[in-house]
Amino acid sequence: MLIKKLWMNNSLRNYNYIVACPDSREALAIDPLDHRRVLAAARDEGWTITQVLNTHEHGDHIAGNQQLVRETGAPLLAPATAAASGDIPSVDIPLSEGDTVTVGTSVTLDVLETPGHTMCHISLLSRTDPPHLFSGDTVFNAGAGNCHNGGDAAALYRTFAEKIFKLPGNTFFYPGHEYFESNLKFTWACEPGNAAVREILDDDGRIRNQDTDDPLLLCTLDMERQHNVFFRLDNEEIIANLRKKFPDMSNAPDAEDVFIKLRQLRNDW
Predict the structure, then answer these.
(1) Among 8, 98, 139, 245, who pairs with 14 as Cys (CB 3.0-4.6 Å)?
(2) Which pTM does this prediction carry?
(3) Which residue of the set 117, 121, 132, 227 is catalytic?
């Protein structure tokens, strides 16, 4: 499996992705914002875009659909719920939990329903060793998606608990946005004793390549467990600091309560 990560260098800090089959050179474009950038990147690699896919319905993830489909003739794949509601227009292939997306002759991606950021959200998990998760706006480097526009924090927690936390520790994450430094600083504010976060923040080169197409830091699930506050729901320091913000918090909060309060705190941070 070949992966091209495209930094959009826009105010929303989007990433677009192209996943290609090394044998057939066929490619899948994920969440195209700038169709020209996506097409140019595919041409540079000698790949042919044969499918276009959206993880969810927000405009910064579907803006390039129409032009990209028109220029390539590729079918559009998207969450079945967003297709049915019309939130993503002109979907050719609706996708649900358990479906697969095949790229060329050698790439298979499993569809996971990952609601929370929006209730229509899907992610793609590659059948590779190690696995790769194209997580849209569900999981970010050191963070979790917001729930402002059609989402639900309790649903996002269930996605983390039932899907994300159960992935193999060597799973690599490919998020839809680059919020790494800001997310690390939020974790640091919640857990100032976290040495892993301090180490990354002290190394500017690991988080400041935003003007290139190179990954800033390709994180695995095991790495996220060290520096992502939304993975550290039983940490005593985090819970103690949350109680300062939420005095009515239970003396023995469950993981869902900690997650939801962290998401609430992050909204205003």
Answers:
(1) 8
(2) 0.94
(3) 117
Predicted local confidence at residue 9, as pLDDT: 86
Instruction: Name the catalytic one among 31, 34, 35, 56.
Output: 56
Instruction: Decide if 60 is catalytic.
Output: yes
Residue found by looking up tokens 């936390």 in the block: 165
Q: What is the pLDDT of residue 216?
A: 55
Average pLDDT, the chain: 94
**Tokens read off for 245:** 């913000």
- The terminus-to-terminus CA distance of the chain in angstroms comes to 38
Asked if 35 is an active-site residue, the reply is: no
DSSP assignment of 182-223 equals HHHHHHHHH-TT-HHHHHHHT-GGGT--TTSSS-S---BHHH
In the residue annotation, 117 being an active-site residue is answered as: yes
Tell me the sheet residues that pair with 77.
53, 93
Active site residue 137: yes
Task: Provide the pLDDT confidence category of residue 269 given band limits of 50, 70 and 90.
Answer: confident
* 61 in catalytic set: yes
* Active-site option among 60, 99, 110, 213: 60
pLDDT digits (tens, 9 = 90+) for 62-86: 999 999 999 999 999 999 999 999 9
